[in-house]
Structure formats: C-alpha cells, structure tokens
Amino acid sequence: MRIPGSIVLALVLLSSASSSQTDSTWLKEIQSLESTYGGHLGMMAKNLKTGETIAYNSSERFPTASVIKLPVMAAFFSLVDQGRLDTNARVTLTAEDKKPGSGVLQFLSEGSSMTVLDAVRLMIVLSDNTGTNLVLDRLGSSHDERLKIVNDFLVTKGLTNTHLLNRLYSWNTKRNSPEGVRYGIGVSTPEDMVILLESLYKRTLASPSSCDMMMGILKQQFYDDIIPRYLPASECKYLDVAHKTGSVAETKVDVGLVLSDRAEIAMAIFIDKHPDHAESIENRATVLGAQVARVAWNHFTGMTGLTDHRVDAGDVDWTRIPGGSWAIFRSPAAPFPHKERANGYVRTDGTRYPRFPHYTDSSVIVFVPEGFKELPTGSNLIVHFHGHMGDNLHVLESDSLTQAMTAQKINALLVLVQGPYRARDSFSGKMEDEGGFRRLVEDVLTTMQREKIVKSTAVNRICVSGFSGGYRPAAFVLAKGGISDKVTDVFLFDALYANEDFFVDWLLKGNGRIYGAYTDHLEGEYTSFVAGVKEKAGNRVSFTKTAVPHDLVPRTFIGQWLSRLDRGWKQE
Fold first, then answer.
1. How is the chain split into domains, by residue range?
2. Which of 60, 244, 270, 568 is spaced 20 to 30 Å from 475 by Cα?
3. Which pTM value belongs to this model?
C-alpha cells in the first residue's frame, strides 16, 4: 500500500525532534515533480551534521536494481575485517562466469585474472554484473549461504527491509517467492539505505579502514545522471558524491553521500513504475530523481533553483582524430529542448515526431583542429546547422567538414549543433529566440575555456553554415541571434528554402559574404536571390549550380569555400 507523503512527513516529524516542523516547501516541490514526471517516488535525505531528516514514502519497499551491490560490498568488507576474505586474493574468470553475458568482464578472455578487490571496484564503479557474481561467489560455499551472509549482515546494521534475493542473471537460482517475483535481485527502502549510508559516513558500517576504502570506491561511480546531476559543484569549495546507482526496466535508483563545504547529506532516491523506458540521460525518471536530489540539497543548504550548474571538465567527452580532436557536451543553450516542441511535432502530411528523441538532444560537438590558435581579439568559429533527418554525429561522419578544415589549415573551432534529431523539421528552437545564438556561442566558448582550449570567451569572427533545412537556423542567427556583427561569412549548401529577407538584410547592412551551391530544385530561389542583391552586394555573393546529389553538396563544396576565406581565417 502506498503511504501518502503527508502521513510519512508526519511520522518523520514525530520520530525526529530536529526535523523541520515549519518548512514544507520541499514536500510540495517533490509532490509536484512526481506528478509532472510520472512514476512512483520514494526518498529520504538526512543532514548528517544537524540530524534533520526529510522523507517521502521512505518506509515503502522498492526494487533496488543494482543498488543492492552496495550492501554486497559492505558484507564483503565485513568478512575482510573478520579475516575470512583477503582483498588481494586472485579470482580467475571462467567460461561459467561469462555465461550470463553482462558487464565489461564478459568480453575478457577465459582465464583472465584479477584481485577480488578489483572485482568489487568493477561491481560498484561500472556496475558490472559478472564482477558482482565473482564477488558473491567468494562470500560462501553455496548460493543460499551467500544470500544469508549478506542478509544477516544487513540485519545486524538495522536494515530490516533490505534483502539480496538472487545472484545476478542466474535464472536457475531465482526463487518463485513473492519478493523474488516482485523485486528481482533486491529490495530495500529509502529509510534503510539512509541508515546504511550514515553508518558508512560514521565509519561504523565496517572497520574504519574498510569504510574509507568503500567511500573511495563509491566516489569513483561512473554513472552521475541522478544525485550529482543538478548539484552546484561550481558554487562549492568542494563537492563529492559517493554513491551507487541502479536501473532496470521501470526502476531508477540512486543512493549516496553528498559531501561538501555547504552540507553533508545521506540521500536515497527510488523511482518505480515509470513508463519512460528510454536509455537516455533525458529519461523522465532519471530527470525526476535528479530534480528531487536538488530539492533536498536546496532544503538543507538554503539555496534555490533547479538549474544544472554541474558543467565541468567531466561533462565533456574528447576524441582524438587525424587533424585534431572533437568534443561532445550538453549545452543549456542548445536549440532543444524548447517549449514549442514540448509535445513533439506533427507535419501537414500527418507524420508525427514525438518530443523524445527528436527534440530532447542538447548535444553540441566542437572540433579543434591541430594548430588552432586563439587570436588576441578572440576565437574564430564555424557554426554548422544540419538538415532534415540529420544529427550532428552524422554530420561529423559524412560531410567531411573536419577533413576540409584540416586540409585548408583553417584557424577556427567547428561547432556542430544538434537541431531536430532525425526529423523532417526546420524549426530551430532557441536559435529563434532573441539572443539565442549569442547564448549558444557564449556557452561553447565558456566550455572550451574550462577545457583550456581558449583563454577567453571573446569572439573574433563567425562563419554560419547551413545544409538543406539548416537554412532556417542560419537565417534566424542573422536576424535575431544577437551577434550578427561578428558573422563575416555564410555557407548555404542547397539551403535557400525561405527567409531570404533575413539573409538579404544581413548582407546589405555589412560587408559579409555568402557562398551557395544549389541543385535543380532550388535554382529559382538562388537565381532570384542573386538578382535581388547583385547591384548592392556585387561579388560578395557567390552561388554555383551543381549536378551532384543533394546529400553530397556539403562535402563537395566545403573545401572550395574554406579555401576562399581571407587570411584572417587561416593558420599562420
């Protein structure tokens, strides 16, 4: 039976004299978030310095998913403390170990060897299921004994509703019990997990040295999409999160210790029965959990807001390639998500593009060519917008932009913006908001500054590039972007479907150049444009008709146009 949040709140207030008895703002926010994002939520958070606790459905039982691996690790170290296990003992990967086929270890060769402590690290940091079974199998001589060792240990620590129910991916040992059927490999409550975390924090979960080792392993957690996601690391002197995540089917869980100069918090967040099954950072259950973590943080620290301030070097993924390196990160200034596509998009022909995945991708790719140098007046940028049914990674793969920049020794950062993801839609989201492009450029350069690619966020000059349906963001960048005075060049790859007046206004107000290539179907638009501006723009418009297929226009012309840019765009 689900216990109403108001009842749980009352119970918490009665059981903890230090709990807030006047401020229920956090409760209203959490209930609103649950209503907005869906699913069934349970949470508990405790200020470890003051003892104040907030809770919502905290005594209700939830599936643990991989969070059960935290109690397994604790039981393991308890046996180490008793001298019954050696962290340096070697384990050898067998064919039987690899059979479940889950985790990194399944790809290693039979006979691979590691310490049991390394298996523990893999179990927690990467949530490796094969590694978990390697650890479990060392706890006792039989399956039943191993479960009993873990569960008996939990009882001694006051966790009365937390049980390990099975070995992972071991269907032959799965019990047809009510718990086994309902909860899978493990069951727990937010309340139990906070008890465990506080014991770890106080170094009483195991020996002090074992607690220190567990804390260090938990801080290396690879999956940071929930508790750490919206915590304002940039506004703290230090902020560490020692936590364990879990995710399976309709369940998302994260439990951990938030350790900072502002507050030290034990936090457990469980979300179950959530209909969003997408494997994405924007999964609504994942976002709900992250928002709830921030509500708890705000309550204990007095801060406000739910904005993600945790954009740091760890949020940027770099790949080195011939000619330079490219990075991908998520930007709050990216075109999407946007309110105009909150419910997706339906074309006039009836084709429907749901919000996910077509309007939730906020990724930005930045290519930094070898030899790139920031100029005294700032950085040069080439910002490219893809067309219909495209995405920025496809551009990176197919359109030869990075190769052309390298060949022409272009001294600029190439920015590939994610527009509507694989949709027949030219709407450009935040690029159509007043000043939207300026905010995007500022965020790109701020991110590159943090990555030590540039020293300042100053802009020298910008080239705006659009392919096919990318004409629309390019046009709005010039009309409403807020920094059109920095745009010196525009590339239009078979991309002049509409908004010609935006390009004309920009062209006639300054000294910029437009390069274009078009196929038969846009010949009228391109020739009409040239005729309209020829007298005033002269040779600042360079259009070429081509017989190459539409999709090949970018890779055919990008090198030619880059070669014609003036010396201010070239490496010395």
1. 5-60+191-301, 65-188, 313-335+361-569
2. 568
3. 0.55
